[in-house]
Amino acid sequence: MEKWFNIWFNSPYYHILYANRDHQEAADFIDTIAEYFHFKKDQKALDAGCGRGRHAIYFNKKGLDITGIDLSPENIAYAKSMENSMLHFQEHDIRKVLCSNYFDYVFNLFTSFGYFKNESDDLKAIHMFSTALKKGGILLLDYINVAAFNSENVNETETKTIQGIDFQIQKSYNANFLYKTIKFNDKGQAFEFQEEVKIIHLAKFKEYLSAQNLELIEVFGDYQLSPYLENSSPRLILIARKK
Predict the structure, then answer these.
(1) For the chain, which domains are there?
(2) Using CA atoms, how far apart are residues 51 and 57, in angstroms rounded to an integer?
(3) Along the chain (243 residues), what's the average pLDDT of each consecutive run of 10 residues?
(4) Contact 100/131 with Cβ under 8 angstroms?
(5) According to the 3-state scheme, what is the secondary structure of the chain?
(6) What tens digit of pLDDT does each residue of 150-198 get?
(7) pTM of this structure
(8) Are 144 and 235 in contact (CB under 8 A)?
C-alpha cells in the first residue's frame, strides 16, 4: 500500500492547494539563516525534502552549492529544469543514506519530517542527515512546535476555493499524529487525501540527535530565530552540529 505522502505529493492538486504559500516568509527565513550562519561561497548544502526546489534555488542565490532531494519524481522533474553548476536535484528517500562526510549543511525545512508511522524510519532519516554531514557540519531541522498547538484550532474544518475547486480541509489529532483530511470534487470526480505529521516533542528530538552523533547547539521558536518558548512558539527549529 502506497504511503500518503507518495500519493499526495505527486498529485497536481497538492500544488494547486498550496500554490499561494507565503514565498516571502520562506525567503525572509532563508535570509535570516544566511545571516546567522555567515555562509561562505561554494559551501555544500543538502535540502532534504526539497519539493519543487524553491528553497534550494534561494539558497543557491546565497552562494551555496546545494543539492535538493525529494521522494516525488514529479517534484524533481520540475526542479531539474532550474539546475545549474551549483544547483542539483535528485529523487531520493531521506531514510536512505545519500553520501558520507560531504555537506557543510543539511536543511530540513517547513515540516518536511514526521511523516512516518514507525520511529525506526525517523531515526533512519536523522542517520542520513548525520552521515551526509562533514565533521563539524550543521543540521537545521524546522518542525511545528507540537507542544503549543491549540486543540480548539486542530479540530476544525475550513473551505478554500482555489482555481474553481472547493477544498474542504478538516484537521484532527490523536496521541501520536496531527491529521489534515482534504476532500474536493473536480470534473465530476470526488477526491480525498490525508496529511499526517507525527507529534514529536523537543525531548524526543534530543534523543534522536544524540543517538546519531549530533550535538544540539541552539533551539529557536520562529522564523525570526526568536528564543524557543515551549508553550507559545509556533515553530521548533533545531540547530545541531556533527561531532
Answers:
(1) 4-145+201-242 (3.40.50.150), 151-196 (no CATH)
(2) 11
(3) 82 86 82 96 95 93 97 93 97 97 97 93 97 98 89 73 94 88 95 94 97 98 96 96 97
(4) yes
(5) CCCHHHHHHCCHHHHHHCCCCCHHHHHHHHHHHHHHHCCCCCCEEEEECCCCCHHHHHHHHCCCEEEEEECCHHHHHHHHHHCECCEEEEECCCCCCCCCCCEEEEEECCCCCCCCCCHHHHHHHHHHHHHHEEEEEEEEEEEECHHHCCHHHHCEEEEEEECCEEEEEEEEECCCEEEEEEEEEECCEEEEEEEEEECCCHHHHHHHHHHCCEEEEEEECCCCCCECCCCCCCEEEEEEEEC
(6) 655 566 789 999 999 999 999 888 889 999 999 999 999 999 999 999 9
(7) 0.91
(8) yes
Which pLDDT belongs to residue 107? Answer: 98
In the block, which residue shows the cell 565533521?
A: 135
